[in-house]
Design goal:
three-stranded antiparallel β-sheet; 3 helices; 3 strands
Length: about 80
Amino acid sequence: MTKPGLAATPGLSNHGWGLAIDLCSSETASADAMAWLRTNGPVFGWENPAWARRGGSGPYEPWHWEYVPGTEPLGTNWS
């Protein structure tokens, strides 16, 4: 059985380019850690993109964070 949509085309993943990370459940389960990330992540260029937030255009993925200064020039910032 295949699961379409769970992986990017090889060579096109922000994860593969080092421009996206998926946090562990120990971080996403911590309200304090997530509040810190939402406040301070953008200071360092990291954000949970709009598409991955509740009500966004994609699946709800609070664990997915992208390095915006890298994704914008590549055109892979789909927010």
